[in-house]
Write a structure and sequence with these properties.
Layout (H helix, E strand, L loop, with lengths): L9 H12 L3 H14 L4 E7 L5 E6 L6 H6 L27 H7 L2 E7 L6 E7 L2 E8 L4 E7 L6 H5 L4 H18 L4 E6 L2 E6 L4 H9 L7 E7 L4 E7 L11 E5 L2 E3 L2 H10 L12 E6 L5 E2 L10 E2 L2 H18 L42 E6 L2 E6 H9 L5 H6 L16 H5 L5 H4 L2 E4 L3 E6 L2 E6 H19 L4 E11 L2 H9 L1 H7 L2 E4 L4 E8 L7 H14 L8 H13 L9 H11 L15 E5 H6 L3
Parallel strand pairs: 1-7, 11-13
Antiparallel strand pairs: 1-2, 2-6, 3-4, 3-6, 4-5, 7-8, 9-10, 10-13, 11-12, 14-15, 16-17, 18-19, 19-20, 20-24, 21-23, 22-23
Length: 619
């Protein structure tokens, strides 16, 4: 038998490695931005075209590379970050594996322009699909400019899996946020299709958060700070009243590296317990500084997950730190007994003195006297029991004569129940009289059928009804919008505003009418009939959240996402009481749907219990 194991060619190995490193354009943005930061840059510019599919360019003013380093940087496992295995446990840089540039060059057209500070000329290198096209000496600016064009040009199957330009741009924006928030000492610029999205100057952490998420976010932030032997915690948490249903403003940074940690998130959520609703999520921007030797950041290909040596201690410190900040800055409601009430005196009364109330007591007052006089405010009131008793007895004068006069009853009308015997005489019963329903545990609607009974989940049933209704309205574009008497203004972040702009046409077909007022506010003039004015903010917040998450990736279109979100948000919830008419209407509407058996999220809506199933229970 011949040998069957062979070494893969380098270009094939690089394409396989690209499957781990490069999942979408945002992955390339992350790697290039981190390389720019590791190069000691003080200014970084990101340029995007067509959601990163056509162009991703990162320009920095870092230390640059020599001609040899430029060529060697595209080889696999070539890096300047580590020298030996022990360095893996004391990392203070972003990248260290040396696979990023080699993987990117294997699936795109790459052009590198770089020059060290002490050199007169720089290097211009072009690579297409791991093949070096040219390497020249030219006049370039100090630092490095790396352009990635035509991503996945040689892997059409991977390119077909990419989402729309707007979706890919949103993922790129998320990666940009994570890098920019971790490094406020670096100036960042972000351009998309020739338009400037962000221009972030050098600042501190608070100013960087405000510059990214808008000026109104400044009032939401509560500082957090704690310095221990295990960890140094700094940053900000968002006030409880601004908690959102989406997890947009949640950032953990460990040694200036963005991470995802459900364990640490639970510590923060535990500190907010009792201050926010169960379905709301707290916002936070927390920076943790720990000993690099106490964490392992090489447990995940994207390096967004880390392993801590002592997670339990870190959990306790983080939870108590957040709780302390909530109490220290009067975020938690409290009673202040030392408050100076004079500070709340209206301005118009500042020169007026307080009138001391006067109390007058009648020492001669005797409540047991038949006739007593009461003197209050200069007026005399007389109390006479005989007069009161005579007035009381006068109520019964003439009562005997009314009883004796039998004709008086002819004018009296008696209340009685309506006669319902006609219902049983009529052979054609209405649907309401045929259907017997009742509500069980404020969660299920039970109705009878010929073979037994049906138990319906009221929330899922209403979701199905609303889902098909909204889907029809969006498709046929016949939704009715109720105009608001006074326009409603809502504050949104720049990223949320871009999402609303993207789905604006679909929202109009549902019934939402709005315009972008400023960079941080939108003005709503019309809402769907099923949405009340008080629910508009909640509905749009949920729409943005679901559109960001793409309904766990199961949705097929923008229309489907909107219909699912609205049906989930506006449906009857578990615990709501339904009267008999509402129960019957829900049952009728459900079985008028095309797919009454499953909810929009592929969960069972009802179960059927036949008479045979009941009989088996008595055997």
């Amino acid at each position: 038998m011949g040998d069957i194991i062979k070494l893969l060619p380098d270009h094939v190995a690089n394409q396989i490695a690209a499957g781990e490193v490069v999942q979408r354009p945002a992955s390339v943005v992350k790697e290039l931005l981190e390389n720019a930061i590791d190069a000691g840059s003080t200014s970084v510019m990101l340029i995007i075209k067509d959601g990163g599919k056509a162009l991703i360019q990162v320009v920095d003013n870092g230390i640059g590379m020599s001609a040899t380093d430029a060529r060697l940087s595209f080889e696999r496992h070539a890096t300047s970050k580590i020298q030996k295995a022990e360095d893996l446990f004391n990392l203070d840089t972003k990248g260290f594996r040396g696979e990023a540039l080699a993987s990117i060059a294997a699936i795109a057209h790459v052009e590198l322009q770089t020059k060290p500070e002490n050199s007169e000329l720089g290097t211009i290198l072009k690579i297409e699909g791991s093949k070096v096209i040219s390497q020249e000496v030219g006049t370039v600016s100090k630092g490095t400019s790396l352009s990635v064009k035509n991503l996945f040009f040689n892997i059409p199957a991977r390119r077909n899996f990419l989402k729309s330009n707007q979706v890919e741009l949103r993922h790129i924006t998320d990666e940009f946020h994570r890098v920019a928030l971790a490094h406020p000492a670096i100036a960042f610029q972000f351009h998309n299709n020739g338009n400037e999205i962000f221009n972030l100057p050098i600042s501190n952490y608070r100013q960087r958060i405000v510059n990214v998420f808008g000026h109104k976010s400044n009032a939401k932030l509560v500082p957090v700070g704690e310095d221990t032997q295990v960890v140094k915690i700094s940053g900000f948490i968002v006030k409880p009243e601004f908690a959102r249903k989406s997890r947009g403003e949640q950032f953990f940074f460990v040694n200036n590296r963005f991470i995802k940690s459900p364990y640490l998130y639970h510590a923060v959520a535990n500190a907010f317990e009792g201050l926010i609703k169960s379905d709301a999520h707290p916002g936070y921007f927390l920076y943790l500084d720990v000993d690099p030797a106490s964490i392992d950041i090489n447990i995940h290909p994207t390096k967004t997950e880390v392993k801590f040596d002592d997670e339990h201690t870190l959990y306790a410190i983080l939870r108590s730190t957040v709780k302390h900040s909530l109490g220290q800055f009067n975020v938690v409601p409290s009673l202040d007994f030392e408050k100076d009430q004079n500070l709340e005196t209206p301005y118009a009364y500042k020169n007026k003195g307080a009138d001391i109330p006067k109390v007058s007591v009648d020492a001669a007052f005797n409540p047991f006297q038949e006739t007593a006089q009461k003197h209050v405010g200069g007026k005399t009131y007389q109390k006479d029991r005989n007069v009161n008793s005579k007035a009381w007895e006068s109520l019964y004068v003439g009562l005997d004569t009314e009883i004796d006069n039998g004709n008086e009853f002819s004018t009296i009308a008696f209340e009685s129940e309506a006669i319902t015997s006609s219902i049983f005489d009529d052979q054609t019963e209405s649907v309401e009289t045929k259907t017997t329903t009742f509500q069980l545990r404020r969660k299920y609607v039970v109705t009878t059928i010929k073979s037994g009974m049906i138990v319906i989940d009221q929330s899922r049933a209403h979701q199905r009804v609303l889902y098909e209704k909204f889907l029809k309205n969006i498709t046929i574009k016949e939704a009715v919008s109720q105009q608001l008497l006074f326009p409603l203004k809502l504050s949104v972040t720049p990223s949320d505003q871009s999402i609303l702009h993207e789905i604006k046409e679909s929202l109009h077909t549902i019934g939402f009418v709005f315009d972008i007022a400023t960079e941080e506010t939108i003005e709503i003039t019309g809402v769907p009939l099923l949405v009340s004015e008080s629910e508009v903010g909640m509905v749009l917040d949920q729409l943005i959240s679901d559109y960001q998450m793409e309904i766990s990736g199961e949705s097929f279109s923008q229309t489907d996402i909107l219909a699912k979100t609205l049906s989930k948000t506006l449906s009857v919830k578990t615990g709501e009481v339904l009267d008999t008419a509402s129960q019957i209407a829900l049952v009728n509407d459900l079985f008028a749907c095309k797919e009454p058996q499953v909810s929009p999220f592929n969960k069972s809506v009802y179960v059927t219990i036949t008479e045979n199933d009941i009989d088996k229970k008595f055997i």
